[in-house]
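Appendix B, record 7
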Amino acid sequence: MNSTFKTNALRGFKWSFLNKIATQSLSLIFSIVLARLLSPDDFGLFAMITVFLNFGLLFKDFGFGHALIYQKDVSKTEFDSVFVLNMLTGVILTTLFFLLAPTIANFYDEPRLANLTKVFSVVFFIQAFGLVNLIELKKCIDFKSLSVIENSSLLISSLIAIGLAFYGFGVWSLIVRTITNMTLRTIIVFFVSNYRPVLNFNIKVVKKLWRYSMNVSLNGFLTYWVRNLDNLMIGKMLGQQSLGVYNIAYQIILLPISSISNVIKDVLFPSFSSIKNDINIIRSVYLKVIQTIALITFPTLAGIAILSDSFVLILLGEKWSSMISILPLLALVAMPQSIFTVNGTLYLNTGRPDIPLKINIISLPIYAIGFYLGLKLYGVIGLVYAYIIIYVILIIPIYYFSAKNIQLKLRDFIKNLIPVIFATFLMGCTVILTKIFLFSQISLLNFISLILVGIFTYFVIIFALRKYISINKIISEQFNK
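Structure tokens (predicted):
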């Protein structure tokens, strides 16, 4: 395997993995504390705003960040041109969303959203300052610095938010948390990164980068609505209470994907630039990567599904009890999503960002119709069932295009995942039986006991099946050095 790829990927993986573990652990702890201090209504209001504000953040660099990472050699002029473009975009978006605040409030028929959106719109301007610096660190695979930046800003902003929530500031504590986090991250990254911006804009550079970033940018917009259409429709049709419960459930389910899948994706994208023309190496790495992801995400998601009642009632409290029926269903659809998250990296590094774009063009109207019917008939549960049915249908083209792109055979794909699926199934059965016959009462002690039973059972089965599991040995060797 290419030595540059190996060195860069391993170095990046270690720090990115440690970063994500720390970040997601802190996020989970702080989210649990805030969930106990705030109400589903507060989280629902915040989710209503972020549906639109996060969409605006997609315009932050129009995919030029991916283009800068994808290119092997990037000049200072190219970085500067993207910086100037980001600043102009930040000013425009902040102004636009400030003016649109009353319209967003009217859309949801919730007057409180007007002032919340006006204040929150400043994140566009703040984020624009540090985007290119973040890109420079990612291109250099400097995930050690990124770890320091993300975790320090998250820690400080979350502590401030908890203080505000404790003193009764409600949804404003979530708004302040995001703005503070963004501000701190922008300030710190400026001093950590080697890039220093200059107001030097070259339209020819932008046109050249746009050839690559156009499909990435368009796909990003469609992907966003595919993943956030549920929040938009729940908020519009059912209100902030239901949206708050669903949104937190979705965030919980996303934690394993964010911790594992996105770590590997972020590291692979810049690292693959040195081997993007070698399909055989990419295919080999892809199989090992998705198995590694599945080894962690499959049992974690299965555990959340089986212990959803204890998880919600013990950690979040009785006011979130309506989440219990949602978590297992979302965990079911999140399992295949966790491994297919890496597919986007394949398309970008093989120069085919048009493939996910085509998939999303097909997916978006199907999800819109399915979500609407599900909400009309059975509320939030109906939407989740529609989500599962649609994803099962769409998984065929999702797999087909990725497999064709790297010449991957179906039998190799299935053979690669069978040991993990088998181990997860046996672990799940063991935990369910133990829960029924030994720990049927909901308590913190029983909850911890069932988690330990699941971990022990899973590791014993995996150890027994170790000869069928081919995790990248290079990573293991590197960690043992």
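Remarks on this record: The chain has one domain: 3-479. The chain is about 85% helix and 0% strand.
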